[in-house]
Structures are given as structure tokens and as C-alpha cells.
Amino acid sequence: MTPAARHAAAIEVIDAIRAGARAEAALKEWGRSHRFAGSKDRRAIRDIVFDVLRCWWSTAAAGGGEDGRARVLGLLRLTDVPVERVFSGEGHAPLPLTDAEQAVPESPSTGPAAFDLPESVLSMLEARFGADLPALADVMRHRAPVDLRVNLLRATPESARAALAEDGIEVEPGPLSATALRVTAGTRGIERSRAYADGLVELQDAASQAVADFAEAQPGEVVLDYCAGGGGKALALAARTNAQVIAHDIAPRRMKDLPERARRAGAQVRLAEPGTLGDLQVPLVFADAPCSGSGSWRRDPEGKIRFDAGRLAELNAAQDDVLRNAARHVAPDGRLVYATCSILPDENEGRVNAFLSEVAGWHCSRSLSLSPLDGADGFFAAWLEKRDSA
Ligand SMILES: C[S@@+](CC[C@H](N)C(=O)[O-])C[C@H]1O[C@@H](n2cnc3c(N)ncnc32)[C@H](O)[C@@H]1O
């Protein structure tokens, strides 16, 4: 396919997303009905679609419309690609621009199009980031880096780096955590590499690793990962000091791959079905609550284009519920680490304050707030302890 034909395909996929399809499903469906497209074409189309999703509002403003055609036109304008190279009408290229489309709109200096962030979070983020908001918004318009976590149960950063190099994967020390490696070349080969198959490394963003570090699981300590999901944090918690992790999730099917991942990593993780925790109490309960994912909207830009105030209210209620229930499993003198991959204060400090005002006998001894400006995903974590009653 020519580059212009790939842009025409991206226009179709974006229109399907606007009509309600999930991005991955829309891309898959396009691939199914265009079997002639090779893997390079599919990757290129995906990249264009995701670039538009990350810049959802500014591409619409620069292209003068809401549909896929306007947004792809806007993307070309914002990235200084000559539009007539794509909008030529030749072969499978999009049709040439109309007279109306030739006029380049002014770029807005306020609102979602100025920041590529949903209206419902703008004032909250302005209050939280102040003069840094434009820089934050700019970082969030770009692709996220790819990080690996060195599994300290199987490797050191040096031995992992050497093993990755054998498969052509180049890394450098990552930010925020001693176990983080940032991939600089060979990303596509990671899951086929020996280092990955042998459990020396896991794919995990550096900020996610920093949050697991923050919990300071002690050697051999029993940790309840209350919202384990796919188990990324459970494995990081287990690997850091060989802690014994009990993985729990309200939707246990999300943990289905965790036993195999734990086996590969040599990590002590066992699953607990919902409703089976009873009166279990452990020294560390880790609650990685469901959230907007706003700290990782670079990886999942669809999350931001569909986000609204109603969704935030639902999430806040779910977060309050998680905090309340997870706290019941903290042993005397133990701690509850509440975490989200969100940069929205309502999901972070807001939930911690709501918990502290509702449940007596707790205090927050420290917290960690990371945003994409710190070099990886945005994350929040708070260390909650039962207040000494003496
Ligand atoms: C942010 S994800 C967890 C990600 C996971 N910790 C990781 O590192 O891969 C949040 C998880 O919380 C779970 N969840 C939502 N409400 C819950 C509840 N009330 N109790 C336990 N788990 C819950 C969801 O099913 C989801 O898997």
C-alpha cells in the first residue's frame, strides 16, 4: 500500500471508532476485510489511528471537522507533512481537498483542543499542574516509551541487559526504579526473546515499578494484592524481596494468566477467589484500584476520548468501595497501599481524604505522585496506616 492509501484506511478506521467501535476491534475488522494488506501496512495504519486518538481534539480543530478525513488532515498539518502528498485522489489515496478544506483553521488556545484532554478533567488538571499543564499535555500527545522490569529473582540489570542484547534488544537504565530498563531498539522482538521467555524481564512501565517499590514489601512478607488484575504489580511485589503474594480480584478471570507468569518468573503468587478472603489479615494490603487510567492515556488514548464526568463519579464510588473493603484485611500495625494509574486528584488524594474522614483510626504517612512529566506513566500511591491508639 502507498502511504496515501494507508491514510485512507486510517480514515475509515477512525470513522468506525467515532461510530462506537473499540479501536483494536475496528483495526482488526479493517484487516479482515482487506486481506491484501501486509503486516507493515497494518502497523502503519495503526500508528496513524493512534496518533489521531492521542491528538483527538487538536486534529479535529486543525482539520476543520470531526470525521476521520478531517482528523487525518489535521494530523498532517500538525506534523508538517505536505497534505497534497496524501490527499491526491490517485489510486487509493483520499480525494483532493475541497476549497473549504484548503482553509487552515486557527489553533485554539483554550479548551480540549489546546491540550488534547477531555473537558471534564481540564479544570482539575489546571489546578493540579498549573503552569506545567501545557508541557504535560504535550508529553501526553506522544507515544509512551517501552520499559522492562528486571526480575530480581532471575537476573540482575546487567545480566538481563546482556541476555536482551543477544536477541538484538537494546536497553538503557530506565527512570524511577532500579529495576527499570528502557528499550531503545528491538521493541518488537521482546516477547520472542530468550530473556522474556526465561522470566528475566517483564514488560512493565517504570512508574508502575516505582509504585511497587513504594510499598516496601519485606522479605518473605505476606502481601494481599487486593485488585490484582493481570498481575503486573503482584509479580513486581513478589520479585522485589521474594514476598508471598495472595492475588485477589473481583473479576478472577483477569488473573487467568497469572499462575503461568508467576511460574516463569519464579515468584510466590497464589490466587484467592472473591469471597474466600474471610477474616484474613496481612501486614501489607496493596490496592491498585480501578481508575480512569489517565496516567497511561498515551498507551490507551481511547480511554481519554471516551472519558466524562459520569465515568469519574462511577470510578470514585468503586475506589471508595475498594479502600473500605481492602482496609479490613490489614493486620494491626500493618499498612494499606492505595494506588491508581491516574493523575486526577479526585481519584487520588480525594479518595484518600474521603477514606480518612469516613473510617476512624487511620492516617496517611506518605504518598507518591508521578506524572508523565517524570519520564514514565502517571501514578499515585498512598501509604495508609492504622493510627496508633495509644
Ligand atoms: C488497575 S486494575 C489492576 C491492575 C493490576 N494490579 C496490574 O498491575 O496489572 C484494577 C483491578 O481492580 C479490580 N476491581 C475492581 N473493583 C474491585 C473490587 N471491589 N474488589 C477487588 N477488585 C476490584 C478490577 O477487576 C481490575 O482488575
UniProtKB/TrEMBL annotation:
The active site is at C341. S-adenosyl-L-methionine binds at D249, D288. The keyword Methyltransferase applies. GO terms for biological process: RNA methylation. The keyword Transmembrane helix does not apply. InterPro entries: MeTrfase_RsmB-F_NOP2_cat, MeTrfase_RsmB-F_NOP2_dom, RCMT, RsmB-like_ferredoxin, SAM-dependent_MTases_sf. Keywords: Methyltransferase, RNA-binding, S-adenosyl-L-methionine, Transferase. Residues 136-390 form the SAM-dependent MTase RsmB/NOP-type domain. GO terms for molecular function: RNA binding; RNA methyltransferase activity. Signal peptide: none annotated. Belongs to the class I-like SAM-binding methyltransferase superfamily. RsmB/NOP family. This is RsmB/NOP family class I SAM-dependent RNA methyltransferase. It comes from Pontivivens ytuae.
